[in-house]
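Progress note, sequence design subtask.
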C-alpha cells in the first residue's frame, strides 16, 4: 500500500529555489525506489519578490491554501529593498503561529571533523538537538511605540510566556531526552529577566518532577553561549526560548561548518496543521543564480521531513549520505572548499543515496 504525502513548496527568494530543487530531487529519487511512498508537490510563488509586485508576502488566504498539505518545504525569504521585519513576520512567523508550529528543532551536529573551527573537537563532542520554543516569547510581536519621533519617544517590546506555551515546549524536550536517553539542558536568563525567565525556570523544575530519570542542567544564556564554543560536549538535548534559541543555534552553525549546513524544522506535534521544514541560511542574494549555493542544509531538512513522516530509515539514510558526500570531498560547493555546482552536488548526492539503498 502506497502512502501519499502532499508537500507545499515555497522556494522563496535568492538561492531558495536552487536549493529546494535539490531537496525535491532527493524525495523524487526515494519515491522511485520505494513503492510504499509517493510525494506530490505544489509550488507557491510567495516571498519578497512577490511582495515587491503585490505589496504582501503571500496571499491573504495563504494559510487556508496550505492547511491540507502534509508538510511545507521553504527555501528562503529575504531580498534587497524589503525590510527584514516584514519578510520575517509576514511569511515565516505568520505560518509558524497560524499553524501552531510551536516546536523548532535545530540539530547541531558535526558531520566531519574538518568542518569545525574548534581545535581538538571531534564528531562525538558536537552532537546536540536544540528544541526552541517557536510560537511566543520574545517573537510574539507584542509591544507599543509611544511618542514616535518626539524627544520622549519610548518603545516597549513585550515577551509573552504563557503557562501553556512554556510547559508544552519543555515537556516536549523532556520526552525527547527520555526517548533518546540523553541529558536535557535548559537555557534561560532568570537572574536578569525577573518575570519571564524566572517563570521559565519554575516550569522547567515543575515538569522535571515527572521525569526523574532525565538528568538535567540549567545555564544562563551567556554562560551557555560560552560553553557552546568551549565545551559543546556538555549539551545533548537543549530547550530554550524563541530568542535565545535563535541565537545559540547560529553559534551551533558556526562550530559545525557554517549556515550552509544548518537546518530547522517547525513542528506541530499533534499534526493538526502542516509542519514546515527549511534550511536556515537565508536567501544569499549575492550568489543567487550563480549555481554555487550549498544545498546540503536544504537536503538535511528533507531528512527531518522524512523523520516527521515516520520514515526514519530514509531520514537516517539521507543524513548518512550527507556525511558521505562531505567525506568524499569531490562534489562540494565553494563554501566547503570545492568547485561543484549546486546541481552537481545534488546529482552526486542521489547517486550515493541510491547506491546505499538500492
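Output:
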Amino acid at each position: 500500500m502506497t502512502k501519499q504525502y502532499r508537500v507545499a513548496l515555497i522556494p522563496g527568494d535568492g538561492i531558495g529555489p536552487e536549493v529546494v530543487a535539490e531537496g525535491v530531487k532527493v524525495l523524487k529519487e526515494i519515491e522511485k525506489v520505494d513503492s510504499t511512498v509517493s510525494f506530490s508537490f505544489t509550488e507557491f510563488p510567495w516571498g519578497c519578490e512577490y511582495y515587491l509586485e503585490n505589496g504582501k508576502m503571500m496571499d491573504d488566504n495563504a494559510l487556508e491554501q496550505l492547511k491540507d498539505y502534509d508538510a511545507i518545504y521553504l527555501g528562503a525569504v529575504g531580498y534587497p529593498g524589503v525590510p527584514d521585519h516584514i519578510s520575517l513576520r509576514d511569511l515565516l512567523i505568520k505560518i509558524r503561529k497560524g499553524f501552531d508550529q510551536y516546536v523548532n528543532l535545530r540539530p547541531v551536529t558535526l558531520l566531519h571533523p574538518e568542518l569545525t573551527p574548534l581545535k581538538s573537537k571531534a564528531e562525538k563532542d558536537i552532537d546536540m538537538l536544540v528544541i526552541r520554543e517557536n510560537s511566543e516569547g520574545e517573537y510574539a510581536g507584542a509591544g507599543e511605540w509611544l511618542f514616535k519621533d518626539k524627544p520622549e519617544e519610548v518603545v516597549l517590546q513585550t515577551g509573552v510566556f504563557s503557562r501553556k506555551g512554556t510547559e508544552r515546549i519543555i515537556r516536549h524536550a523532556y520526552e525527547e531526552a527520555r526517548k533518546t536517553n540523553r541529558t536535557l539542558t535548559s537555557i534561560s536568563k532568570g537572574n536578569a529577566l525577573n518575570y519571564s525567565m524566572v517563570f521559565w525556570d519554575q516550569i522547567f523544575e515543575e515538569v522535571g518532577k515527572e521525569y526523574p530519570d532525565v538528568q538535567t542542567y540549567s545555564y544562563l544564556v551567556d554562560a551557555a553561549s560560552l560553553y557552546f564554543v568551549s565545551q559543546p560536549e556538555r549539551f545533548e538535548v537543549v530547550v530554550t526560548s524563541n530568542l535565545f534559541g535563535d541565537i545559540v543555534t547560529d553559534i551551533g552553525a558556526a562550530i559545525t561548518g557554517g549556515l550552509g549546513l544548518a537546518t530547522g524544522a517547525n513542528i506541530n506535534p499533534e499534526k493538526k496543521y502542516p509542519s514546515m521544514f527549511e534550511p536556515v541560511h537565508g536567501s544569499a542574494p549575492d550568489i543567487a543564480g550563480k549555481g554555487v549555493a550549498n544545498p546540503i542544509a536544504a537536503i538535511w531538512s528533507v531528512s527531518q521531513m522524512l523523520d516527521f513522516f515516520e520514515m526514519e530509515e530514509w531520514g537516517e539514510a539521507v543524513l548518512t549520505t550527507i556525511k558521505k558526500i562531505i567525506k568524499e570531498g569531490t562534489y562540494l560547493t565553494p563554501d566547503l572548499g570545492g568547485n561543484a555546482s549546486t546541481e552537481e552536488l545534488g546529482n552526486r548526492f542521489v547517486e550515493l543515496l541510491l547506491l546505499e539503498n538500492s
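The two ends are 20 Å apart (CA to CA). Work on this subtask will continue into the next period as scheduled.
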